[in-house]
Amino acid sequence: MSIVELEDVHRSFGRVHALRGLSLRVERGTIVGLLGPNGAGKTTAVNVLTTLVRPDAGTARVAGHDVVREPGRVRSVIGLTGQFAALDDGLTARENLVLFGRLLKLGRAGARERAAELLDRFGLAADADRRTGGFSGGMRRRLDLAVSMVARPAVLFLDEPTTGLDPTSRALLWDVVRALRADGVTILLTTQYLQEADELADRIAVIDHGRAIAEGTAGELKARVGGSVCHLVLPAETRDRAAEVLAAGHQVTPTDDGLTVPAAGSGTLTAVLRALDAAGIEPADIALRRPTLDDVFFALTGGGADAAPEPAAAGAAGDPA
Ligand SMILES: Nc1ncnc2c1ncn2[C@@H]1O[C@H](COP(=O)(O)OP(=O)(O)OP(=O)(O)O)[C@@H](O)[C@H]1O
Ligand SMILES: [Mg+2]
Predict the structure, then answer these.
(1) What is the CATH number of the domain that holds 46?
(2) DSSP E strands: which ranges in 36-82?
(3) Among 314, 318, 316, which residue's Cα sits nearest to residue 82?
(4) Does residue 198 fall inside a structural domain?
(5) Which of 33, 110, 248, 261 is the most exposed place for a label (fewest CB within 10 A)?
């Protein structure tokens, strides 16, 4: 039995149909990455599983407990690190952790002991007695994660754990997440970063407009694009025309400097060059490379993963239906 299960879950907010029949499973002791662009429904899915939002239809279970009928039981086995850190900035890192320990009735000594252990574990021991108001983004995320671990949850939900972090802080956080999995913690994380899902997740569910559009290991998803990708670097003024010409026989994905098409076999390269030549377009460069998860996402959705984040109004783009 999967430790986390979503079965055909629907949830609307007014006119916005945020989840449209989302199904998802996470096996015990694994990391599943929920990958999708802004507004895909990632936070809503996490909120349903953490009992913060009720599903309109469908079922959601954590460790066999139904989120609607047994929310207390669900809460007793989970930890949540939300998209926006929930720390008291007037307190030090240690005080934040002790506070949670006391709320969890660990007792004064127990709470202090657990706090010290987690500060050490999450690389925060040196800054333990500084107020968190002065912490960097990466330190805040690590402390937020540490706070979620005070209760030793069996299942941890991480909503965009590294959004906005620099590469070093991101790598540090990845190490922490991997260490938690090594301890047997089951983790569902949401991310907009294909690389993050690729690095961390045992399995990846790609979601778009409230439903899963693909599921598998990173390797399986990459295989869906085919063996390799044909990458064309094109002068800016020829890109639209080239996309139009190639769209007749290929799945075209725009890139920063040109476009890519899946390379089904060795014939693709020749066919592409011939079609461009016939249209009088000369590529600046052409290469075959292994597909990335970005290619997978574009192949599945027709774009969207690279859309600029909208920090203030998540999903303000509204309901596409
Ligand atoms: N409380 C709410 N009230 C109204 N609309 C909401 C609410 N929560 C979510 N939505 C809408 O539901 C859709 C899905 O939002 P959700 O926050 O789940 O997406 P997300 O994948 O987490 O996006 P992001 O990457 O921006 O965090 C969006 O269109 C959003 O505006
Ligand atoms: Mg979100």
Answers:
(1) 3.40.50.300
(2) 57-62, 65-66, 78-81
(3) 314
(4) yes
(5) 248
Mutate to test the pocket of ligand 1, among 6, 11, 12, 13 (most ligand atoms within 8 A of CB): 13
CB count within 10 Å of CB 41 equals 27
Q: Near ion ligand 2, which residues have CB within 5 Å?
A: 42-43, 83
- Identify whether residues 198 and 268 lie together within a single domain: no
Ligand nearest to the CA of 319: 1
Q: Whose CA is nearest to atom 12 of ligand 1?
A: 18
- Provide the domain count of the chain: 2
Tell me: do 143 and 70 sit in the same domain.
yes
Same domain, 110 and 236: no
Which residue puts its alpha carbon closest to atom 26 of ligand 1? 38
Tell me which residue range forms the domain holding 82.
2-221
Q: Which ligand is nearest to the CA of 315?
A: 1
Verify whether ligand 1 is closer than 6 Å to residue 39 (CB atom).
yes
Q: How many CA atoms lie within 13 A of 227 on its CB side?
A: 8
| Secondary structure letter of residue 150 according to DSSP | T
Q: 45 CA distance to ligand 2 centroid (A)?
A: 9
- Regarding the beta carbon of 38 and ligand 1, being less than 6 Å apart is answered yes
- pLDDT tens per residue across all 321 residues of the chain: 799 999 999 999 999 999 999 999 999 999 999 999 889 999 999 999 999 999 999 999 999 999 999 999 999 999 998 877 678 999 999 999 999 999 989 999 999 999 999 999 999 999 999 999 999 988 999 999 999 999 999 999 999 999 888 888 899 899 999 999 999 999 999 998 888 999 999 999 999 999 999 999 988 888 776 678 899 999 999 999 999 999 988 889 888 899 999 887 778 888 999 999 999 999 999 988 877 777 787 778 765 444 433 333 334 444 444
249 C-alpha to ligand 1 centroid (Å): 36
Q: Is residue 305 part of a domain?
A: no
Quote the pTM value. Answer: 0.81
Distance CA 258, CA 236 (A): 7
How far apart (Å, rounded) are the C-alpha atoms in residues 47 and 113?
Answer: 30
